Structure formats: structure tokens, C-alpha cells
Give the backbone structure.
Amino acid sequence: MKLTSAGAARTVTGSCHLLEVGGKRILVDCGLFQGQVSSLNRDPLPFDPAGLDAVLLTHGHLDHTGRLPVLVRNGYAGPIHAIRSSRAITEIILYDSAKIQTEDHERALRHAGEAAESEEGPPVDEPLYGERHVAATMALFRDTDFESPIDLGGQVRATFRPAGHILGSAFIEIEGPEGRVIASGDLGNRESGLQADAVLPSPCDAVLVETTYADRAHRSQTETLEEFRTVLADSLRAGGNVMIPSFALERTQVVLYTIKKLMQSGQVPRVPVFLDSPMATRMTHLYETCANQFLPEVAQALERGEEPFEPETLRYTTTVEESKKINAIEGGAIIVAGSGMMTGGRIVHHLKHNLWRKEASLIVVGYQAEGTLGRRIVDGARTVRIHGSTIEVGARVATVNGFSSHADRDDLLRWLEPTGSARVFLIHGEPPVMEKFAGELRARGRDVVAPEPGTRYELPRLSDSAS
Ligand code: ZN
């Protein structure tokens, strides 16, 4: 068995790992590089896509799915196996990605056109793919279920098992004649909002494990919910609008679910709630069709038709006109909108209309990367630039940090335990975090590697030496 990582090796995004097992070439995920490493999306893949036998998808996040159309554009025509809900999420995510790339490209061309009269600008990159490539990609999907092995030929089988990260998320156990390897995908935060915890893996020969938050401990769910309740109640008491920038997938549904419970139990008043994000709206409707994949409390509410992601006062605003009408509301509404880091999307308009108001509030429930508008506000900027205007930050700004959908250090150690003496390949993390976690694992007697991108690693077969 061999491993070659073509992404999420010594970095967080771009998940893409080639496994050679039983003579089969199997790719686990093919995600987009994001943020500072996004130029890597244009590098050639270190393998021939046409020579792959199968693609296995752990979950729908863009950093695990965003280069699938690149793969297909470059000759891949085999099956893409995924849990049904991950396929539905991927479809929404990839069409959105193609649309954003086209818009960015058109904007860059306009700017290049303006610049060309005075100076020579850098060449404008073509989009990585368009809608037709996404359509061709989606046609290759094969639905699979948790815990039902898929035969990949050559005595190789793959089993998707619940990872507790987001709707449909799986880790994958791949077994061939030479042994067994497990790819973690992204693992969930223990006791997080909607999903049951990840199941524990079986003993194996090698395990690839994500390390996004391998250097920290999350606050408990109880503490996080209490913090959110206090912040939301205080914000509404201040009288202004409450803005909650949110990622469309999972975080929005957790936030809506929590608001509904707080309103039902009378802990916060039943004020109007707006979900002002077409993508988050599509995701929420998808969530409503997947009852059997949530914690019993959520699943039962869905089965009883209680719409747990829809506070009674919720309004979906789909059109731009409906969104603009919210601007007329000066106080007392909760506005949930994307993007999560305030770098674009409808939240930016709401910030422009509310951020300067002393009575308004901004509740930040997600990670804010360096260089984003969200990060500047969280770091205490007194003024920010929005759409060419300088806006004073008069609103209360509160951060609730515990809503992570990723495993922390203890979750990862607990999950790795049953893999016994398997060699551990650390992926999907920042190098300093990996280094620290590698040290902890080595202290526990584990054999640890942080693979270099593009390098081919031989996977050990431990079962031989054990028997
Ligand atoms: Zn993820």
C-alpha cells in the first residue's frame, strides 16, 4: 500500500490523498486550496486523473470537494462514492464555487481592461472550471450508506463510517490484500450540536488523521450554549438589530436550532429572525430531509414535523429585494447571513446599515482568518471600510468560540486509540500544530509521519509482524 498526498499535507485546505491498495488507485477527497495557498489549485496533480480507479468523498466541504471538477476536466471518468447527503451538499457547494469563480474572473477582466491603458497588468487566470464541468462531475456520483462496504474490485473494499463533523461526514476504512488503511476526513467535536459523535475506528495498519485543532481543547457544549444565550439576550435587550455572520453549512443550522430552543423556553424574546442567505436556505432545507443522520433529539423533532431549524419567527429572504427590505428595520431583529468571515455576501450590507449603531450587536460564532473584515472587527477596529465608505464600529461585538465542528486534541487522541500501533499520518493541519501533536503521539509510543505533498510513502503492513 502506498500514499501520495496532493493537498492538506502540511497545510489545512486542499484535501487530496492517493492510496494505492491491491493494485487499485483510489483517491480520497479532492478539495480546493483556500486563502493564502489558493495559488496551489493551479499546480498539476502528482498523478494522472484518468488512471484512477475510484474517488471516495469524506464530506461536502469545499476544501474536500472543490477540485473534483478539475479532476474530471483532466480525464477522470470513474465513480465518485459518497454518502447521499454529502452528494447533495457537494452539488450546492460546487455550483456556487463555479459561479464565484466566473464572477471573480469577469471582475478581474474588467480591472485588467481598465489597467491596460496605462500599464501592463498580470495575466488574468481562467476559472478552474465552469458549470458544465460541475454537471459532468455530479454525473459520476454513486450514493452509498454508512457501514455498508463497497467493492472496489481487486479484493479492495471501502466502508464509510460516521465522523460526526457535519451532515453526511464520514471517515473511510479501506481494506485490501496488503492490509487496512483508514482516512479520517474531518472528525467532529465531541458533543457538538447536531451530529452524533464519530464512531471509533478498527485496528489498522496505517491511519491518516486531520489535525486542524490538535493543539487545543474546546469549551464544553454546555458552556458554549450558556455563553450564546447570555450574549443573545443582552444584545436583544440593547434594542438594536443582532447580526450573526454564519457559514451556510452546519453552523447556520446549529445557530437556528439553538435560537429556536431559546425562544421556545422563553429564554430570549420571540423577535423576527431573518435567514438572509440563499445558500444557507438551500442547506437548511436539505438538512430537513435527513432526519436519520442527526442526534435522536434533532431526528425526533424532524420526524414529528417540528422544523427544529426554523424558529417560529423565521423568514427566509431569497431575493435581493427582500434582503434590502431588512435595511428598514432599525432594531429588534436577528439577522443570520453569510459570509461567515464577513468577506462578502449579504452580511456586508447589514454591517453597513447597523455596525455604526450603538444599540446594534454583532455576534461572531465562527473562526475569523487573518486579513478578513471579520478579523479586523473582532480585533477591535474603531472604523472599517465597507463598499468604499468608512463605517464607525459603534455596535457591541461579542465572540462565542465553542461552536467548532472539528475534533480537539482530546477527541483526536480518543479516536486514534483503537488504531493500536498503526502508523499515523498527520494531515489537514498547520505545521506547528502537527509538530506538537506528533510529539504527544510519539510519547505514547506511536509511529508518526507528517507527509510532504507529492511524496509517495510506503504504508507498513503491521498485521504480518503481529501474527
Ligand atoms: Zn470539513
